[in-house]
Design a protein that fits this description.
By secondary structure, the protein is mainly α. It has 9 helices and no strands. It has 2 domains: 220 residues, no CATH class; 143 residues. Helix 1 runs antiparallel to helix 3.
Length: 388
């Protein structure tokens, strides 16, 4: 889907251009702003709030686009949580990450809900734009009312019969200061209000374009997931299928989809179980080969012991005859130690072999129990699907 970053760039560039113009005309704007600081500050504050709301409308779309992209890739949601604009779609889909089908009515309902949320934010932005114009006109009429009242006071206080025309002119000059201040208030508030409405109007236009782009991309994606009914089952005279029958058919299709997913998961579990059984069989075969090797070693050891019996008898006879030297006794002691060590190693190897066989049989028992538990839900799911 299209990211709304390019619209944010446009809005930021436009605000930068506005700031440049304000910097160029700063002297005149400062004098105009000083005519009525309170009302002009109110207008500027509302302008800042409106700018923030328009930027928020576009920035919020990033979370919605990220959620849709993660769902289409089959990934789990990020720490951002459930989207705000697509909350009904996220609630309806739940934890389903494989695939889903929508009816045209459901798709239209989702799009209408999204469009109503966009219209709500657009109406708020239009209200701020209109509020800027209203405050500008309010300042205009307020300044004009002050001007008219001040001019009336000046005319009433004007005296033509005075002997000092310079004093009369000075009084007229002082009397005209308040009407001129009222005119300054009128023009300054109109200037700031209309300029602010121009800024908010452009930002609202960019926000609407970003929302329309997101809406169109979402509509294309949902259209690819929409299942259109084929019209089978219409009555005589081309009468449409009753609503409850259509709902029953859709529920049956959903049940079949759920059954297919259960069967698929059961098949995957069966494949995993077969893999474990194959690995266990290979380990048992390896263990059997080791047992055969150890048996052959034990047979060779027994044969060597049988061959050594005559030698030991001769050595015993020679020892009884007193003809055995010290070297022969040392060899005999080494042979006895070797035989004792070989007997100990044989006993230790036999114990380890028995322990490994027990572990393998325990693993085999657990694997068979897990496969039996997985087969039972699969069978019950198939029977429930058949009943429906």
């Amino acid at each position: 889907m299209t990211r709304p970053n390019r619209f944010l760039v446009r809005m930021a560039a436009f605000l930068a251009a506005v700031l440049v113009v304000i910097a160029i005309l700063s002297a005149g704007l400062q004098r105009a702003f000083s005519h009525n600081v309170g009302l002009n500050s109110l207008i500027v504050g509302i302008l800042v709030i409106g700018i923030g709301l328009n930027f928020r409308r576009v920035i919020t779309l990033n979370r919605e686009v990220r959620w849709v992209e993660e769902y289409r890739r089959g990934q789990s949601p990020t720490s951002g949580g459930v989207p705000r604009l697509l909350a009904p779609l996220a609630t309806m889909l739940g934890e389903r990450r494989d695939r889903f089908n929508l009816t045209p009515l459901t798709m239209r309902s989702l799009l209408d809900g999204l469009s109503s949320r966009f219209d709500e934010s657009h109406e708020i932005a239009l209200y701020f734009t209109g509020l800027m114009i209203f405050l500008g006109l309010l300042g205009t009429f307020w300044g004009l009312s002050q001007t008219i009242g001040s001019i009336g006071d000046v005319i009433r206080n004007l005296s033509v019969s005075s002997d000092d025309p310079q004093a009369a002119f000075s009084g007229l000059k002082q009397g005209l200061e308040q009407p001129l201040s009222g005119m300054g208030t009128a023009f300054s508030t109109s200037l700031i209000g209309l300029a602010g409405s121009l800024v908010l109007g452009f930002l609202d236009l960019q926000a609407v374009q970003a929302q329309n782009t997101f809406y169109n991309d979402l509509e294309e994606w949902l259209s690819a997931q929409t299942r259109i009914s084929s019209g089978i089952g219409t009555g005589e005279g081309d009468q449409p299928v009753p609503a409850y029958i259509q709902a029953l058919l859709e529920q049956t299709a959903d049940s079949l989809d759920n059954l297919q997913r259960v069967i698929t998961k059961g098949e995957e579990g069966r494949i995993v179980g077969n893999t474990h059984l194959r690995q266990l069989s290979e380990r048992l075969a390896t263990l059997a080969d080791q047992m055969k090797t150890e048996q052959s070693l034990m047979l060779k050891l027994a044969e060597s012991q049988m061959e050594m019996k005559p030698i030991l008898a001769k050595l015993a006879d020679a020892r009884g005859g007193g003809g055995m030297d010290e070297a022969t006794r040392g060899h005999i002691r080494n042979i006895d130690a070797s035989l004792a060590r070989m007997a100990e190693e044989t006993s230790t190897g036999r114990d380890e072999l028995v322990r490994e066989i027990r572990n393998e049989f325990r693993l085999l028992t657990r694997t068979i129990a897990v496969l039996a538990e997985e087969e039972q839900p699969q069978g019950s799911g198939a029977r429930s699907g058949a009943d429906r």
